[in-house]
Amino acid sequence: MNEFDLIREYFTWPIKDPSVTLGVGDDAALFSLEQGYQLVTTTDTLVEGVHFSASTSAKDIAHKSLAVNLSDIAAMGAKAKYYTLAIALPKIDKSWLQEFSDSLRQLSGHYQVSLIGGDTTRGALNITITMFGMVKNSKALTRSGARPGDGVYVSGTIGDAGFCFWKLSNGLIPSNQELKRLNCPTPRVELGLALKNQASACIDVSDGLEQDLSHILKTSSVGAVIEVEKIPISEALLGHIKDTNDWSIPLCGGDDYELCFTVPEDKEEALKKLSESCNVNITRIGVVTESLGLQIKGFDGPRKSYQHF
Ligand SMILES: [Mg+2]
């Protein structure tokens, strides 16, 4: 099987989006932009041994590769539309490729995003997806809009993926739910889109709450006070925290792909309705302050957020 057969067999399927004039199969893809919208783009690479282990299934790798990019587009308050895929494979393993392709196609259909091009090479397994989305002119949610007095919020529960990773690293067996949080994250697509009218700043929690919230604070030139007791935590992780009095997992564990955002006081009431309509729990964990830096009430023990280098 050569490269072209591989692309045809596993990475070409009908595109339903009429704005794509040319998808996989030419030198480059073509799509049309709607008037009054900006193009939003992001890219993420997943590397075996860094972002997933050798035992992770092809299905989960495909899911996570797409989900992390959908999460970044959602954090911008934008609608994801198209993506390209660059994949390096150590060898051609047809059953692995079929499982990867089925999973990618299924999730693409669910979120209505079109695979419009890419590249395949031989090499250590790694996957790069570049995603393109749309947002109305000047409506994008950035990290720079947080103001003193805004509430600090997070979606869902924080720390489950980090807790799963901690269990695996310590020879413990995570629950299926914890494995799902680590390997098959749910990007907060609907919430991100809805938040663009409510939030003043937003980020997805990929490297750890403390570090990611700090990005908002630095970019916005503000500070914040949050309380660890207010961070929404699953019951199992709460048990671990009660036993160890260690809050480092929810503060620093990565890979949650929840949204962390700030909301001006006059929009906090509308936010409650939005939580219901998007069917996602939203929790206020603190407040933005004029004085710089992130103050964490309730825990000052050692912790270290994820850094690539
Ligand atoms: Mg991000």
Explain this structure.
With 309 residues, the protein is of the alpha+beta class. The protein folds into two domains: 3-136, 2-Layer Sandwich (60s Ribosomal Protein L30, Chain: A), CATH 3.30.1330.10; 151-297, Phosphoribosyl-aminoimidazole Synthetase, Chain A, domain 2 (Alpha-Beta Complex). The chain has helices at residues 3-10, 58-75, 94-111, 160-169, 176-183, 189-195, 209-220, 235-244, 248-252, 268-278, and strands at 20-22, 30-31, 37-47, 79-89, 114-122, 126-136, 151-155, 201-204, 223-227, 259-263, 282-289, 293-297. The strands form three sheets. The protein has a six-stranded mixed β-sheet, sandwiched between helices. A four-stranded mixed β-sheet has the order 3-6-4-5, covered by helices on one side. Helix 2 runs parallel beside helix 3 (94-111). The model has no long low-confidence stretch (mean pLDDT 95). The site of magnesium ion has 5 residues, from helix 2 and strand 8.
CATH fold type of the largest domain: Phosphoribosyl-aminoimidazole Synthetase, Chain A, domain 2
Bound molecules: magnesium ion
Mean pLDDT: 95
Helix and strand run: HEEEHEHEEEHHHEHEHHEHEE
Number of helical runs?
10
Helix content: 25-40%
Question: Which structural class matches the secondary elements?
Answer: alpha+beta
Distance between the termini: 37 Å
Q: Quick one: CATH superfamily of the largest domain? A: PurM-like C-terminal domain
Integer-rounded radius of gyration:
20 Å
At the first level of CATH, what is the class of the largest domain?
Alpha Beta
Number of domains: 2
What oligomeric arrangement do these chains adopt? single chain
The percent range for strand residues is 25-35%
Tell me about the largest β-sheet. 6 strands, mixed
CATH architecture of the largest domain: Alpha-Beta Complex
Overall morphology = globular
Q: In total, how many beta strands?
A: 12
Low-confidence stretches: none
Largest sheet: spatial strand order: 8-10-7-11-9-12
